[in-house]
Write a structure and sequence with these properties.
The complex is a heterotrimer of chains A (639), B (250) and C (246).
Chain A lengths: L16 H8 L12 E5 L3 H13 L2 E5 L17 E2 L11 H11 L6 H21 L24 E2 L5 H19 L2 E4 L2 E9 L2 E9 L5 E5 L2 E4 L20 H8 L4 E2 L4 E7 L22 E5 L16 E2 L1 H5 L9 H13 L11 E4 L1 H7 L1 H19 L8 E10 L2 E2 L12 E3 L17 H21 L12 H20 L5 H16 L5 H21 L11 H25 L23 H4 L1 E6 L8 E6 L14
Parallel strand pairs in A: 1-2, 1-9, 2-5, 9-17
Antiparallel strand pairs in A: 3-4, 6-7, 7-8, 10-16, 10-18, 11-15, 12-13, 12-14, 14-15, 18-19
Chain B lengths: L2 E8 L6 E8 L8 H14 L22 E2 L2 E2 L20 E5 L8 E3 L2 E2 L3 H7 L21 H11 L6 H5 L6 H13 L7 H14 L10 H5 L7 H18 L3
Parallel strand pairs in B: 1-5
Antiparallel strand pairs in B: 1-2, 3-4, 3-5, 6-7
Helix pairs in contact in B: 2-6, 3-5, 5-6, 5-8, 6-8
Chain C lengths: L23 H7 L1 H26 L6 H13 L2 H31 L14 H4 L1 H20 L19 H10 L1 H28 L8 H27 L5
Helix pairs in contact in C: 1-2, 2-4, 2-8, 2-9, 6-8, 7-9, 8-9
Classes of the chains: A alpha+beta (639), B alpha+beta (250), C mainly alpha (246).
């Protein structure tokens, strides 16, 4: 408990911090840059933009991703857009307003200095992406179009159809491919990071497995950058891609990096419900549907009638009833929580009972089917493709699902963890979204970190590392490589009776139930008891076929699930320790009389950073207290 | 539902492959095609047989990782990617043939998994606009006609899955290359490198062993991103004009 | 329907490496699109020739004098006629050579076919371009031997009309009176029609003229043109066999 966290926030007024910091940061001269080897793990928005920019600066970069191409990272699936305080709409937006909205949206659990920098850089991101050829939507005059998003009062979201994440990622990917062609970046696709290598306490390399040949080897570098995304797949079912995992950040955590706020997870209210145990993935439907759809469930428990047979007076439009001012448009966390509540009461709909109706019949009556088709045609089509139901005729069924994780490895203002040399970008770090992320802000953060922050801040570390080159011949590398190999051999030698997916599904169900949309101490304690038992069973009874020296998808999955089984415990512990409700973290014990999240700023206005203390030891909690100089802490209300 | 599967199994790129028969039993009609394979794999693993390897990631039709040729059709019947195909599209007790994408430029890795990194090589050859980070001008200083921007977006929608190559009897990568060349060539930002881009990308495409276009438009018919074949006409024109300029040294 | 070859070895031959000359013109031809341009350009020349030849032939319906005079006019062009013939022959040969080179590259690009075929958009015409082209080549050779070089029936060489011109009119009637000749001619023309019905739209696409606005018009226009060619040419043997032209 002795560690003191220094976030290294520059002094001075908020709006000057970033420029002051850049002015005072150390530099690496252009002729020295090629002497530095950098490792970037992950090739999503943060990883690809960082690798490309660092390569362009002249550093010698190696970039790794488990996908078959850097273009496939899960950033690609982001639909809505990217925020920037350009104020092109002349509607009163500003850097400060974007900063304020992000802090408030995060329920006052993020750092002022980081968030202000993010809002400032948002301007440069749009310039950069437009110059790269990202085909943002435009007005007839040829200038950029904006839309409003996620309940803020200005239109500051830039978008490319419903494929903004794809287009931004392709922009970063193309920049990366250019650097690969230039020879400054070497790309390692289908390569998974298995461990971090420390030399004298500094991050100096990684252990990787070639997923095609199964070969395990090590890479040394002067600094390691992780941009490996979030851990939403700990819930098994989520809107994340199948491959998303916690392995890289968890391995770094076990090597000493602090894991911050792991209990901050975001649940999206409008997803297509689970249809059966075989299901592998949940699909998100745009939140915009709530503009015209009315959410309801039958008043009677277990009502077997089809929705059209249930008369109006026997329906409970619960959001409209409880939140007359915002109605169906309450924020994500509130909509999600209420859906869970009515389903827990046994009033859920659909075969599983885990779903609520999103009914467009009133909107169709009012505006006509053609207007609704115009607004949401593609979404209705997608819904029909997946569920085989026509939402023009019968109400949609929706249910919340995990889709983003705000927690991640703890980083300072330079995006460096407490482990010197280890930097973390994008969703993998904890830094900018507090307890809840605003819509269209994930893309902004990934690109801000990758294009603009890390290329400048990493020099602060590198400048101290001249002439301290690590080599894969060092015993630290050999030891880490050996450990990774032993672990894989162990997984393969168990030859138990249950498949990896079975364990993953069981773990997911448990944490979804106990550490999902609503949590309480009792449930969390129960989970904390069950997870170690599940983990023990995994290591005795998992069945991983094939061998390590080949393309083996079951083995990849097994390694990831093994890490989720460890990480889940930390997530539940963090949720148990945070005796308040804030943002995505809702503790049933801590709510206002109206059922709203009740923050405890006196005791919990801090970042909870956890230090790994060994396999059977409770991790140490280290707090970074959050100071608010420029915004006033207030209670959110949507009544 | 029950199905008879004929699945291509191949240990690795150096080994011969063959079709193997599997029964997919008690598959819910709401399951996606990949979930059906997940179910089969779970039962294979339980019986100690190596599961069928296939690529997938986002499972919502955008990442372009999933592949498969189902009954001779890349991504199977209907619009969209394999991950967006649902078993209710098939009749009970159907026989379903499942093969990997086949092309010399996409060498096999295992079972239904192939190596599509040739597409990355093509983008490396010129599929970008070089912008030094931080040097970009103010975004609205360069207006782009809405029509051009929309058309560029249509081309940019390509998900790089490689189904166009798989569907083409000649394994041509023309639709993929034309999508990127058109996306960047339609925008004012992309003009400076327009000629070198198209020449380098086409040459790289040829060097990698992709075939040539015979205008069958199988690619357009199966493209999950609905990229139009008319972009290939644009590519032909761009390439010819760029080559002519080179020949005439203007 | 199933060509499945069980237990067959996957092709292990590495993708063929294609190199490009420093000379931009040669490099253009070495590229796939360059060769396609050559095929399309020569194809366009041949389409124009097929239409011109049709206009000439249809003069048979204007009577013996008219078509024989037309034939004399052509022969009187002397060296120009030879120039045109050489040009057409060159276009024809280039069209075939470039296509065969492309076909070889394409065969290497798709070393293994699917067990089940699932064509979605391609047509019989588009898939049989190579074979229809090669049969047309045979047809053209026979056609030249018959009517141009007149080696199949030596008496064609000695037919003259009342003005002393070579009697093309009688030659055609005599030739097509043979139902086998007419049948072979019709089959050849059918294949040409097939070839053109894909070929015309293909030329427009490959030369980069196609766009969204004209795409469907080009496709249907190409088919219409092909069938006009078929009806035009085949009307001659049909009317001769039916005895309408004597």
């Amino acid at each position: 408990m002795s560690m003191i966290l220094d976030p290294k926030i520059p002094s001075g007024p908020l709006e000057k911090k970033w420029s002051k910091h850049r002015g005072e940061s150390k530099l690496v001269a252009p002729n020295n840059r090629p002497k530095f080897d950098l490792i970037v793990v992950g090739s999503g928005l943060a990883g690809a933009s960082a690798a490309a920019t660092l390569g362009e600066l002249g550093y010698n970069v190696k970039c790794f991703c488990f996908q078959d191409s850097p273009r496939r990272a899960h950033s690609i699936a982001a639909q809505g857009g990217i925020n920037a305080a350009k104020n092109y709409q002349n509607d009163g937006d500003s850097v400060f307003r974007l900063f304020y909205d992000t802090i408030k949206g995060g329920d006052f659990r993020s750092r002022e200095a980081n968030v202000y920098r993010l809002a400032e850089i948002s301007l440069n991101i749009i310039d950069q992406c437009v110059a790269q050829g990202v085909p943002f939507a435009r007005e007839y005059g040829g200038l950029l179009a904006n839309r409003s998003f996620g309940g803020v009062q200005v239109s500051r979201t830039f978008y490319a159809r419903g494929q903004t994440g794809q287009q931004l990622l392709l922009g970063a990917y193309q920049a990366l491919q250019h650097e690969i062609a230039e020879g400054t970046v070497k790309m390692y696709p289908r390569t998974e990071m298995l461990d971090l290598v420390l030399v004298n306490g500094h991050a100096k390399g990684i252990v990787v497995r070639n997923l095609v040949t199964g070969e395990i080897n090590t890479h040394a570098a002067d600094a390691v950058i992780l941009a490996t995304g979030g851990y939403g797949n700990v819930f098994y079912l989520s809107t994340n891609a199948k491959g998303c995992n916690v392995t890289a950040t968890w391995r770094a955590h076990k090597r000493g990096a602090l894991f911050a706020n792991p209990c901050f997870t975001q649940i999206h209210p409008t997803c297509i419900p689970v249809s059966g145990p075989y299901q592998a993935k949940l699909t998100l439907m745009s939140e915009s549907l709530r503009n015209d759809g009315r959410v309801w469930v039958p008043k009677k428990k277990g009502d077997p009638r089809s929705p059209d047979q249930i008369p109006k007076e026997e329906r409970d439009y619960y959001l409209e009833r409880k939140y007359p001012a915002f109605g169906n448009l309450v924020p994500r966390d509130i909509a999600s929580r209420n859906a869970k509540e009515v389903c827990d009461q046994g009033r859920g709909v659909g075969p599983s009972g885990l779903g609520v109706y999103l009914d467009f019949s009133d909107a169709i009556q009012r505006h006509g089917e053609s207007t609704i088709r115009e607004r949401y045609g593609n979404l209705f089509e997608m819904y029909q493709n997946i569920t085989n139901e026509n939402a023009y005729k019968t109400p949609m069924r929706i249910y919340p699902a995990v889709h983003y994780t705000m927690g991640g490895l703890w980083v300072d203002y330079n995006l460096m963890t407490n482990v010197p040399g280890l930097h973390v970008l994008g969703e993998a770090n904890f830094s900018d979204h507090g307890a809840n992320r605003l819509g269209a802000s994930a893309l902004m953060q990934g690109l801000s970190d990758g294009y603009f922050v890390i290329p400048s801040t990493i020099a602060n570390y590198l400048a101290t590392q001249m002439g301290k080159k690590a080599s894969t011949e060092q015993p630290e590398f050999k030891a880490a490589e050996n450990e990774a190999r032993c672990r894989i051999n162990r997984l393969l030698s168990i030859k138990g009776k249950k498949t990896v997916t079975t364990f993953h599904r069981e773990l997911g169900l448990l944490v979804w139930d106990k550490c999902g949309m609503a949590r309480d101490a009792q449930g969390l304690q129960e989970a904390l008891q069950k997870i170690p038992a599940m983990r023990a069973e995994f290591w005795e009874n998992v069945n991983v076929l094939g061998d390590g020296a080949e393309f083996n998808q079951a083995l990849e999955h097994a390694g990831r699930v093994a890490d989720f089984l460890e990480f889940a415990e930390l997530m539940c512990l963090d949720a148990l320790e945070r005796n308040e409700s804030c943002g995505g973290h809702f503790r049933l014990e801590f709510q206002t009389k109206e059922g709203e999240a009740l923050r405890d700023d006196e005791h919990y206005c801090h970042v909870a950073a956890w230090e790994y203390a060994g396999p059977h030891t409770r991790p140490n909690l280290i707090k970074e207290s959050l100071g608010f100089e420029y915004v006033k802490l207030s209670q959110r209300s949507y009544k | 539902m029950n199905f008879k599967l004929k699945v291509w199994r191949q240990k690795d790129g150096a080994s011969p492959g063959s079709f193997k028969d599997y029964d997919a039993k008690d598959v819910p009609s709401e399951a996606s095609f990949l979930e059906m394979l997940d179910i089969v794999n779970e039962s294979l693993a339980a019986s100690g047989e190596d599961p069928i390897a296939f690529d997938s990631d986002c499972r919502e039709g955008i990442c372009g990782t999933c592949s498969l040729v189902i009954n001779g059709i890349p991504h199977g019947p209907g619009k969209g990617t394999t991950c967006q195909l649902y078993m209710r599209r098939f009749a009970d007790s159907d026989t379903i043939w499942i093969e990997p994408f086949r092309a010399a430029a996409f060498p096999p890795i295992k079972d239904l998994v192939v190596d599509r990194s040739a597409f990355d090589r093509i983008i490396e050859a010129g599929g970008y606009i070089v912008v030094r980070t931080g040097s970009a001008p103010e975004a609205n200083s360069l207006p782009v006609a809405k029509h051009d921007a929309d058309l560029a977006m249509e081309a940019a929608a390509c998900i790089g899955c490689g189904a166009c190559v798989a569907a083409c009897p000649n394994s041509a990568a023309m639709l993929f290359v034309s999508a990127k060349v058109s996306h960047l060539g339609l925008l004012p930002q992309g003009q400076a490198e327009r000629e070198s881009r198209v020449i380098h990308m086409v040459r790289k495409m040829d060097e990698l062993g992709f075939g040539s276009c015979r205008n069958h438009y199988e690619c357009e018919a199966i493209c999950p991103a609905e990229v139009s074949a008319t972009f290939m006409a644009r590519l032909n024109q761009d390439y010819a004009l760029a080559s002519a300029k080179k020949v005439l040294a203007v | 329907m199933l060509i499945a070859s069980f237990m067959s070895v996957a092709s292990l031959s590495p993708a063929p490496v294609r190199k490009f000359s420093k000379n931009p013109l040669i490099a253009f031809y070495q590229s796939s699109i360059g060769k396609k341009y050559v095929v399309a350009g020569t194809g366009l020349i041949l389409i124009v020739y097929v239409l011109g030849h049709l206009v000439g032939n249809l003069q048979i319906f204007s009577g013996q004098e008219r078509i024989n005079a037309y034939s004399k006019f052509l022969h009187d062009l002397g060296p120009i006629l030879w120039l045109v013939r050489v040009f057409l022959l060159a276009a024809f040969v280039t069209h075939i050579v470039a296509t065969i080179q492309l076909a070889q590259e394409n065969r290497l690009a798709k070393p293994r076919k699917y067990a089940v075929t699932g064509y979605q958009r391609s047509t019989m015409a588009s898939r049989t371009m190579l074979i229809s082209g090669l049969i047309i080549l045979c047809f053209v050779i026979y056609h030249l031997l018959q009517f141009t070089l007149q080696v199949t029936d030596p008496k064609f060489r000695h037919m003259h009309d009342s003005l002393g011109h070579h009697d093309v009119y009688r030659m055609l009637i005599l030739g097509f009176k043979n139902p086998f000749v007419s049948l072979f001619y019709t089959v050849g023309l059918f294949l040409l029609t097939n070839h053109l019905s894909h070929g015309f739209a293909s030329v427009v696409q490959t030369l980069g003229i196609n766009n969204r606005k004209i795409a469907s018009f080009v496709a249907s226009g190409g088919q219409t043109l092909a069938w006009v060619v078929f009806i035009g040419y085949v009307s001659i043997p049909v009317t001769i066999l039916l005895g309408i032209i004597k």
